[in-house]
């Protein structure tokens, strides 16, 4: 059971940092336990792995985050552990420009942007979340992983699964996509992405603009899906989600008090945060200054992922 420890900066919020990687409370690949520990089941370049992350304080060393890993991908996972926990997140580059953002930044100063270094792991569930409610997307993810995911290595909690390989995703029959509530266009986008998975995984090692462009070469993957993927893969502070139903309204209300909003207006409002627009958005959504929902009451991914 190889392990690695990392001393986080102060302040540091482990749960807020990792929660964006969990696709609902019942995610078979990512789980938070009542004791505050986290379990992740992933398919790394070296093979499947299980990672358990614990948070404790030491009288001498201070606060320590410890990762313990199992499986062929264990060494890869532990090498990536600090990045996953947000060690490479350059928080000092962020400067609040609005009162509501400054208040959220003070309150949630422990938030870091996690970097998984894995593209397909985030791309598939992001495609599942296109144009539907969060609850429906999370159901599809759970059902498909329970049917086609692999048993993880190590002493994992019951019900956890390694996400399917690209070969396995391509073998999912059409009726199972349908039973999971996934329409033909989303299923086709996932299958096309699986065909180019090695090239897409290279996006984990390039800069955000080039990575965004590479993902969008796949039909069915647009700016929304590419940003949602790279927010997690790269921990990219400027990967702003465009094309979202609710986000421009939420940003506009938080920063101006006005209702309604478009992507163009949102881009204008977030212009002072160029290079840090995704981080600013996360903080705005954490601020609680959001409009009451009248017409659209279904929970949406921008709220659930916080």
Report on this model:
It is a single chain. The protein has 306 residues and is an alpha+beta fold. The chain is built from 16 helices and five strands. It has helices at residues 14-18, 74-79, 81-84, 99-107, 120-128, 134-148, 166-171, 174-179, 184-195, 197-201, 208-215, 223-233, 247-256, 263-269, 277-286, 301-304; strands at 3-6, 30-32, 38-44, 47-58, 62-70.
How would you briefly describe this protein structure?
Helices cover 42% and strands 11% of the residues. With 306 residues, the chain is α+β, with helices and mostly antiparallel strands.
Helix-strand topology string: EHEEEEHHHHHHHHHHHHHHH
- In this structure, how is the largest beta sheet organized? 5 strands, antiparallel
Order of strands in the sheet with the most strands?
Answer: 1-5-4-3-2
Q: Name the helicity range.
A: 40-55%
| SS element count, helices | 16
Task: Quickly give the structural class.
Answer: alpha+beta
Indicate the overall shape.
globular
Strand element count:
5
Catalogue the unreliable spans.
295-306
How much strand? Answer: 5-15%
Overall pLDDT confidence: 94
Rg (C-alpha, Å): 19 Å
